[in-house]
Amino acid sequence: MPTALRRRLLLQSAAFTVAGVCLPTAWAAGKIKPGERAALIVVDVQNCFVPGGTLPVAQGDEVVPVINRIATAFENVVVTQDWHTQGHASFASSHAGKKPFETAKLSYGPQVLWPDHCVQGTDDAALHKDLKVPQAQVILRKGFHQHVDSYSAFEEADRKTSTGLAGYLKQRGIRAVFVTGLATDFCVAWTALDARRLGFETYVVEDACRAIDLNGSLAAAWKNMAAKGVKRIQSSDIEVA
Ligand SMILES: [Zn+2]
Predict the structure, then answer these.
(1) What is the distance in A from the centroid of ligand 1 to the CA of 156?
(2) Domains, in order of start, for the chain
């Protein structure tokens, strides 16, 4: 084969690889088009975390229509649920003399204490009734170990116990994750930081999240995520058909 022709074929092959096969996301007209190697992660959009729930995030219910809209752009969707035992270690009521939003020292380090929330099998722990992600392939429950919390969808708060999500996503060939849900500065941020650390291209869709913002936790979370290479985008950055 003539050298010029061989070079042209090689270049065509490389272009095809970049455009169609290897990249988890493509950019079209300035928008991100999630491909088959991208997954949407919907974090803890549960009754407990919206107004009327046991640990309400201000305007937490406003993420639902945003998530429903962008979810149509994703083939792969993972939904998480905070899923605690009665008397869970993250509940202030489990620690004598402690009040919600104070901190306690647990075996794995400091833990913010919360009101009792998202107890397994209760309506409070159910997914928000208006969340529409029928294509979701995994509902991952976390925080079910009595003595360990789990903000992250990937790793429990002891920073040792894996939830198995990274293995699932990697075995499915997923390379990019788009994190949405509640709350920006806790479960969303921890999930995004772990995703990045575990090698995923990671986006947080800011307007598809709402925050608790406890003692400056929101600003700290964004700063930390930016430093680790998590990309902060808006839902309008995603191409939705
Ligand atoms: Zn919790």
Answers:
(1) 11
(2) 38-237 (3.40.50.850)
